[in-house]
Design a protein that fits this description.
glucosylceramidase activity; GH; hydrolase; alpha/beta; signal; TIM Barrel; 2 domains; glycosidase
């Protein structure tokens, strides 16, 4: 490892991705080395980064000029100048970030004869296809339902929770199959599905409640077998798709049952409520043959243009989860409007890119640049490497890419500058980490 590249984004200047010059190796001395890297000790393989192609995001994108539509696609999906996203998430019919509740079938159509995804052809599919055209390869897409159709549920509506009625479990499992096949007929392969978005939350928007045992039994007796019967056994099934606070209990209930676990690829987590990152390691340690994927996170409460803490929250959560066996990161909405929507129940949020569709302007939040400190330098196929550090108040993670380059990301959320040394393969470099900053060091 001869060459060192240091890239920093700091609150003091607000300028993203600045390269720091004149960083060189020095002779190892008796001075304490605060960070040691061990590239020979490797852990999980990284899948990549991405965001959600919600109807709201796709609608916002569609309202912009061709120049700004291209700018957003490039910003997220270009491998050289953008974030290099290769993952995505779609909703199986409506979520809260849709223009309203909708499904793909007519009322009471148990045989799903009326099934069609014509609605997605208006906004969502063009957005995905534009992204895939930029990437020049298939995007790895996870599809998630927020609620079954109202007539399949105990409360008779898509919103406000309720449960899937037992007699419709087979029809609902077939609904996933229909969705996957319909999307793939449109030229958009689906990599995997989650059983239910946030199955423990009764929301004022599209939601449905499963206990851990209900999720287990639905996977074991309906979803898993029906996917296999329809030639979709290669599609990944992800359980939980909710917060870290009770992820251990929920994953254990499903994965401890061999007949359910054989259908499950892994467990999805969100960042709301809890930053108990160690819970991911508990799941990994109990079920090391299963996988962990971050499936949703955003800044709640509407748009926060120019805020710095929002980017720090992204970085803190990415680092925390990566150090606990996470294998991929999917952000929530790719593009929201200046209110933080549209959202059909007013549950407005922030996003890395905000579009003022009336003025045809695009704004980049600190979260966009903070994500880039990871996604631009930690590539799909990279493996996390071990490290030891003595430096308090700096969060960090390190990966070795397939081209043998090593990327280290360091987050300083404090108001104080931090001085440190990094040792790699017997050589040492000094590094200053500014207050309220994020730094990526790349060794090649």
């Amino acid at each position: 490892m001869k060459n060192i590249t240091v890239i920093q984004t700091r609150k003091e200047t607000g300028r993203p991705w600045e390269q720091v010059n004149n960083i060189e190796w020095k002779q190892k001395s008796d001075k304490a080395v605060l960070l040691k890297l061990f590239p020979e000790k490797q852990h999980q393989e990284w899948l990549g980064f991405g965001g959600a192609f919600t109807e709201a995001a796709a609608y916002n994108w569609s309202q912009l000029s061709e120049a700004n539509k291209d700018a957003i696609i490039n910003a997220y999906f270009n491998k050289e100048t953008g974030l290099g996203y290769n993952l995505g998430r779609t909703a199986i019919h409506s979520s809260d970030f849709a223009l309203g509740n909708y499904t793909y079938v007519e009322e009471g159509d148990v045989n799903l004869e009326s099934f069609n995804i014509e609605r997605e052809q208006k906004y969502v599919l063009p957005f995905i296809k534009a992204a895939e055209s930029e990437v020049q390869e298939t995007i790895t897409i996870l599809a998630s339902p927020w609620s079954p159709p109202a007539w399949m549920k105990t409360n008779g509506e898509m919103n406000h929770g309720g449960k899937l009625i037992d007699k419709y479990r087979e029809a609902w499992a077939n609904y996933y199959v229909k969705y996957i096949k319909a999307m793939e007929a449109e030229g958009v392969p689906i990599w995997g599905i989650s059983v239910q978005n946030e199955p423990e939350a009764t929301q004022v928007w599209d939601s449905c409640i499963y206990t851990a045992e209900e999720e287990r039994d639905f996977v074991k007796n309906f979803l898993g077998p029906i996917m296999e019967e329809n030639g979709l056994g290669d599609k990944k099934i992800i359980i939980w798709d909710h917060n870290r606070d009770v992820i251990v209990e929920r994953a254990t209930a499903v994965l401890s049952d061999p007949e359910a676990a054989k259908y499950v690829w892994g467990t999805g987590n969100h960042w709301y409520v809890s930053e108990e990152f160690e819970n991911l390691s508990k799941v990994h340690d109990a079920f090391p043959d299963k996988h962990l994927l971050f499936t949703e996170g955003c800044i709640e409460g509407g748009v926060k243009l120019g805020a710095w803490h929002t980017g720090e929250r992204y970085a803190r959560n990415i680092i925390g989860d990566m150090n606990n066996w996470l294998e991929g990161f999917i952000d929530w909405n790719l593009v929201l409007d200046i209110q933080g929507g549209p959202n059909h129940v007013g549950n407005y949020c922030d996003a890395p890119i905000i579009a003022d569709t009336e003025k045809d302007e695009v704004h980049f939040n600190s979260s966009y640049y903070y994500i880039g400190h990871f996604s631009k330098f930690i590539k799909p196929g990279a493996k996390r490497i071990a490290h030891e550090t003595e430096l308090a108040d700096v969060s960090l993670v390190a990966f070795r890419n397939e081209d043998e380059s090593i990327a280290v990301v360091l987050l300083n959320e404090t108001e104080a500058k931090k001085e440190m040394s990094i040792e790699l393969e017997g050589e040492v470099m000094d590094l200053a980490i500014p207050a309220r900053s994020i730094t990526t060091v790349v060794f090649t």
